[in-house]
What we know:
The structure holds 2 protein chains of 2 kinds.
Chain A: H1 3-23, H2 27-52, H3 56-86
Helix pairs in contact in A: 1-2, 2-3
Chain B: H1 4-9, H2 11-29, H3 38-55, E1 61-63, E2 68-70, H4 72-97, H5 103-122, H6 126-144, H7 151-182, H8 187-195, H9 200-221, H10 229-236, H11 239-264, H12 266-269, H13 280-300, H14 306-326, H15 339-367, H16 378-381, H17 383-397, H18 403-417, H19 421-447, H20 460-478, H21 481-490
Antiparallel strand pairs in B: 1-2
Amino acid sequence: MTVNHFVILSALLFGIGxxxxxxxxxxxxxxxxxxxxxxAVNLAFVAxxxxxxxxxxxxxxxxxxxxxxxxxxxxxxxxxxxFRTRATVDVDEVSGLKG
Amino acid sequence: xxxAQTLTLISPELLLSIFGLLILLVDVIWREKSQxxxxxxxxxxxxxxxxxxxxxxxxxxxxxxGMYMVDMFSLFFKVVASLAGILxxxxxxxxxxxxxxxxxxxxxxxxxSILAMMLVASxxxxxxxxxSIEFLSYTSYLLxxxxxxxxxxxxxxxxxxxxxxxxxxxxxxxLSLLYGVTGSLNLTDIAAAFSATVDSTVRMIAxxxxxxxxxxxxxxxxxxxxxxxxxxxxxxxxxxVTAFLSVGPKxxxxxxxxxxxxxxxxxxxxxxxxxxxxKEIPLVLAVxxxxxxxxxxxxALRQTNVxxxxxxxxxxxxxxxxxxxxAVNLTGNSPFSGLNGILIYLFAYLFTNLxxxxxxxxxxNATGIVEIPxxxxxxxxxxxxxxxxxxxxxxxxxxxxTVGFIGKFFVFGAALREGWLYLAAIGVINSVxxxxxxxxxxxxxxxxxxxxxxPIRLAPLVTLSLVVSAALVLAFAIYPQPLLNLAAWSMGMVx
Lengths: 99, 495
């Protein structure tokens, strides 16, 4: 197992996450895709950190995890507010603003 | 261990953190009684932060193990951030009073978003850039969706949030590649690692990761193809927040872009003497800039909602500013270095666009009108607003005697100096196109008969901020020297 394996795995995971965001229409599932993208990046950071023998990457991962938690808080709050006013969260039906 | 000097140097940020928390606390303890005092607390915070910024004016020092730069470049953006904070708070007081009972949180989150702008401007490591940009994003999402009962506000927030979350993940991926290939998070170390290698694989990875980082920053700046959120978020968000979104994230997005480009990737960005080919990154940015201004202007032509019109106009303005990044050249002592063009343009754009939005807020507050056809006969109903609309739109279109002209002059001048003739030409053509839709609004206001001729009463605070921004737009156009000096000093970071 070299650093290449991890980087390729992280690229694959990132792609799967991005595909999830593009294909699914429920914001909660899209959200999970975004989390997968972030974790793919975390994997890359840890792999690089080990390869480079530097701790910077590990520190970055800790902070990305924290930021992701904050993102969940903000995102879910917005989704809840959306559901309260519309009784749907399907992003294709949320289309009052256009032009 | 932070000593007194370090604390002084980060005092603008500290003050804003303290005031943000103080607003939350006061709001919780004296809920009803404190409502009218909170915005003034926020304004006091911004004013003190501005004073602190001016007090440490001239510093050029790197703090916290190279993660944080307090230099003229970042101080310039801190001045911009505090001024924007003051103006936007002034106009949001009446707007929020009519629409929501939860005003305390608004001013607290808004104070934090100005704090986030300052943090982005000073960031000098990949970690700090990521954290501060995310901080700014989250506060912006919350402000956009602040009117919880309002369907449009919700929709704007979810769209903004989903686009933002994806582009920031893409940017993060780019940052991880940059870290992997250079072994450092610090921008100066990254530049050193790049200059030590001639490996073509490293060059490829650097290009790919820069493009990924550009996705995240392009989202903040609203560059095509990361602009789709802008019109919806601008239309749905509370109008003072729209005013903030159109200047705040855009300004610091440029700050972060310039910081990364000039500190970490100078040899990929700055031009080499003539026999060397044009570099890839400026070329990509030139294409993005052309598409951004053209698309923004063409779609703006058929808008009927004034907030959407200004959204597309602000996309186009981002395209003009990007010309300055393409043409940046710091050798010699030319007044057209590109960098000072962007700074002057950003400063001009700040007051002009805020002013245009304050006009919109003034009308919307009094009558609820945001559709352009209903602006008919505005000159009879609110002569001051109609007249100032003309000034702000002249400035946005870059017509003298307004500060917008000075901005365009230095940006296009840099493009000409660096031989980007077609880029400057397309910029000028686009400015001409933009006159059509700006003056469609003016035509409605001046030459159509009003359906309802009742005069519109303006709130005193809104009038005050209107007059201040209009005065600045005209004053800096007639006597631009202070602005030019400000921009010239701010370039100290690269010397």
